[in-house]
Amino acid sequence: MSEEQGSGGPSFEERLRAARERQGLAPRQSASSKKLDQEPSALGIGLRVGLELVCALAVACAIGWGLDRLLGTRPIFLIAFIPLGGAAGVLNVWREFAPRQGPSGKKGQDGSPPPGSNDRGVRR
After folding, report:
1. What pairs with residue 76 in β-bridges?
2. Is 98 helix (H, G, I), strand (E, B) or coil?
3. What is the pLDDT of residues 14-39, one digit of tens each?
4. Alpha helices in the chain, H assignment, sequence order
5. Which residues contact residue 29 at a Cβ distance below 8 angstroms, ignoring those fewer than 6 apart?
């Protein structure tokens, strides 16, 4: 470990990649990994949106039904939790697909926050 990090030599990642290539262990890009780099399909997006909405409603109905059974009330909590579940599902879909904004309110070309910011839009 006599070599210092800032000595100007190749980085650890570069040396590791070169060693893996020499040993024949370099990862190959398969068809499935190439698909991961592409945009999601319309079918995938539609299924995800539908699943988010249905799951939020199902969980809310289950909580409402369970509270009604536990407390001996009839459909009071079930009726109250149905709109809450719908709102939670819509909020989940909105969070996933809404355009992202940076700290100054400006969006990137793809809707992502500007470089150097974290998920909350705060610059480092």
Report:
1. none
2. coil
3. 888 888 888 888 776 666 656 666 88
4. 12-23, 31-36, 42-71, 76-97
5. none
How many Cα atoms are found within 13 Å in the side-chain-facing hemisphere of 81? 17
Does a structural domain hold residue 13?
no
Token duo for residue 35:
């698909």
Which pair of structure tokens corresponds to residue 36?
A: 């991961």
What domain count does the chain have?
Answer: 1
Q: Which two tokens stand for residue 23?
A: 């040993």
Mean pLDDT of 76-97: 94
What is the model's pTM? 0.53
115 located within any domain: no
CA-CA distance, 94 to 88, in Å (whole number)?
10
User: In this structure, is residue 51 part of a structural domain?
Assistant: yes
How many residues would you count in the chain?
124
Full residue range of the structural domain in which residue 72 is found: 45-100
Specify if 87 maps to a domain: yes
